[in-house]
Amino acid sequence: MTQADAHPFHLLLGTCDYPEHVPQDRPPVYARMQRDLGLSFVRLAEFAWSRLEPLPGTFEWGWLDDAVEAYHAEGLRVVLCTPTPTPPAWLIRAHPEILAFDDQGRVREFGSRRHYDFASPVFREHSRRITRAIAERYGQHPAVAGWQTDNEFGCHATSRSYGGASAARFPEWLRAKYGTLDALNAAWGNVFWSMEYTDWEQVRPPILTVTEVNPSHVLDYNRFASDMIREFQAEQVELLRELSPGRFVTHNFMIFESGFDHYDVARGLDFVTWDNYPTGMLELFAPPGIGEDLRTRYARTGHPDLVGFNHDLYRGLLSGGERLGRDGAGTPNGPWVMEQQCGQVNWAPYNPMPASGAVALWTAQAWAHGADVVSYFRWRAATMAQEVMHSGLLRHDETPDRGFAEVAALDQTAFPVGPVPARVALLHDYESLWIYDQQPHAQGLNYWTQTVTYYMALRRLGIDVDVIHADADLSGYAVVVAPAITLVSAGRAARWTEAVNAGAQLVCGPRTAFRTPGGETWPDGQFGPLSELVGARLLQYDSLRPTLRQTVSGADDLSGTFGASTWAESYRLNGAQALAHYQGGPLDGQAAVIRRGNVTVIGAHSDTLIGAVLEGVLGAAGVPVLPVPEGVRVSRRAGQLLVQNWNPEAVDWNGTTLPPVSFVVRPDDAGQPLEGEQDA
């Protein structure tokens, strides 16, 4: 076998399987079927603690031994999980202090999953113990390619516990950060409403107050809770590195999960994975602004840009450094989709059957946005408990379902792994998310809505996008877009200024640099440390109810009239020039879009205005645009171009008829423009 055969440099596929759910004679049968389907990986055991350790200290490995050997015999690579998302009943009843508290101060009981507090020292001890046990058993097994820690941190609003162990640990965390109560009181502005503390033990989690909670208190509690997740995972990673050298370690993150700083938690992993459920995402996780018209149109595929944004976000969580790949050192180490929807889901308000072709389309899109492996959830539909209505590649009776046929028809060699050639960076920051959403000031608008609106505008222009941290290295990007980075430190402002001085175009959205790192406003107002770079300060902001709109009138390079909803802010100019003004209403005549050199700020929430401004900025930066029809998207990777049609009907575009819910892969002609591609 050649090195290329052993480690192919194209997309590989896998599945999530549950040998603990079926008779012991099934894994050998399933393994043969998975091999024949062209799968390479199988994920196991994330919820299996009660079967692995049915009584304290009593382990039953036989069923998992047999399953691992069955998959190994058919040449599949195994991804094993630490089973900590589901501590068993014997552990919870012996140590109820493990349980978390919700934001109403109630204990979250045993009986489903993720029923633990990350700060619990008792649970941390048992997490290390079960991790060590499973890693000692399988860490050197030749079938084991790598490990997944726990499962879906934050799912079901479990990133933060508001009582118990977390409540006890929080004052200690604050003391380490601030040193003195005077420093804490000053940082939080506790003199307001007489909220000052005189003892660390007086500080509690920020819930159940009579009216609004202090936003700085919330911001620090969110930072604290995120640190607990980081610490919890780091303990597992350390053990897995020790006992299973040469195998990757990853975690499967969630759709639009906001409860912790993913960049911080991802450090120490080899690559990240995420769980992609496009139709469920559209129904349950879509940000405000995705209305019923879009939910109906894309009910059977999900919206391309909601899925695409999450792909790009998770591709950008890790950068630089030597990390293991999907089959060890020197093998591809891009992100995975650890759980890819392959039929109906069971957990959204509505769970329509995916369109014919959707599973293949989702797989192709994942590859084009950087995924090296797509793993389908699940192999066989569950015949028991909470997920009996959730589809698998096999139906309940073990016959192949619709998604199985689409996977079987895929040519994996058509999807080479390699870089995504993005020249545009979109900046993202969880701390800005937390503080923005604590005081959104406009119903129907939040951090994700504002951020995704800019992302969608770029994708409608045919642009590949890197979603990266607001403090990431910006060298090499022609355009940097900061849609909603409301929290800007002096250091962050300096990095952005350096990028602009090096020639990058910077585009900022409303509320940029409104906050200090502590959550207050800057004493000299927005834009704080960015004021000189921007050449302006905030004049007014207008929070618009749904029945109110603002009109923005552009001139010169930004001609036209645009309607704005939800939010509008205007500026006092100090070196910047106005590209557009408000027309009518209380902001009449005030600057709505401003520019100073390479820096542009858009003050109104308007998808058409954002698209027009971005098209002009891309042109100034020499980045070709390719405007695409509604529901059509293009993505580039490894010298290939993926053209996607997410519409329920055929689309004629650029001389080609794209069938409904379909894709085409073709060479990218070494970067030559497509027909219709243009400098903006």
TrEMBL record:
Domain Glycoside hydrolase family 42 N-terminal residue range list: 18-412
CDD domains on file: A4_beta-galactosidase_middle_domain (cd03143)
Domain Beta-galactosidase trimerisation, first and last residues per copy: 422-621
Catalytic activity: Hydrolysis of terminal non-reducing beta-D-galactose residues in beta-D-galactosides
SUPFAM superfamilies on file: (Trans)glycosidases, Class I glutamine amidotransferase-like
Record's keyword terms, sorted: Glycosidase, Hydrolase, Metal-binding, Zinc
Keyword Metal-binding among record annotations: yes
EC number: 3.2.1.23
Pfam families: Glyco_hydro_42, Glyco_hydro_42M
Domain of life: Bacteria
Stated family: Belongs to the glycosyl hydrolase 42 family.
The protein's name: Beta-galactosidase
Organism per entry: Deinococcus seoulensis
